[in-house]
Amino acid sequence: MKLKLLALLLLFATSVGAQQYPTKPIRVIIPWPPGGPAEALMRTVSAKMSEALGQPLIMEAKPGANGEIGTALVAKAAPDGYTILMSHLGPTAISPGLKKDLPYDVLKDFEPITQIIAGPTLLVVRNGLPVKSVKELIDYAKANPGKLSYASVGVASTTHLAGEMLNVAAGINTLHVPYKGSTPAIADMMGERVDFAFFGISGSMQRAKAGQIRMLGISTLKRSPNFPEIPAVSETVPGFELNSWYGMMAPAGTPKSIVNRLSQEVLAAVRKPDVIEWMKQSGLDPVGSTPEQHAAHIRSELAKWAKAAKDAKVTTN
Predict the structure, then answer these.
(1) pTM for the complete prediction?
(2) ∠ at Cα 284 (278, 288), nearest 5°?
(3) One domain for residues 214 and 256
(4) Residue 298 domain flag
(5) pLDDT for residue 18
């Protein structure tokens, strides 16, 4: 009887806490270095969420191991709604298909909240590389086997997999150079120390428009309606496609009412006209899915990228 009463009291306390949520600032763990596109996106969305929630969303960068360090941190956090992960395709859907010793289980350790955006990647090259199209890049790589290098934000990341997919699909041989995030990778490309890369469109578009790097193609299967002037890589390499995404997840066991509240506030934020315009200029498509839709999306992505990694023969240590 006492155990039943205790259980009821705990359930009541959890319910009341969820209804009053949030009563203090919310930590948002970004598993990438500060100053990158993930932070810019989260700042844009979190500003609107903070207004609605009445509490600030405080971003903390926890980079390393292709986003796996920050992701693991949230998996072990208290399921009270005050530590949230800015999830990403790489550590959420690609890494599980490549590593058996991940410090988290995507399907068991998290409560999916929402997919915030979907976005393609840009194929970009350093300005000093004498190529101005995807075809010219492939021809140059074939004429200089093993001499071109491509950057990624880490081993087994989306950007790593994209480079290997291009190697396989185009029949070329290029060297992978992993970095700890897009910021140092783009800096090295601007410094002519790495030849090409597939970077998230929000981070690389500004650099390309400023003339600091050169963009050759976009990773959507067809040209993006936001940037119709940029050729799709698939126009040269049939069937080539790679779309990235960012979302939000909470530790497993987080009350459903809190998960739903956060999902609703993200959806409201990405529907704001100024946020829509910012995303359009950044080449991103707002999503704002439900927790159930995001959970289904993650399951399908896990299967898709496990197959892609196997086909591209991407392995990790």
Answers:
(1) 0.75
(2) 90
(3) no
(4) yes
(5) 55
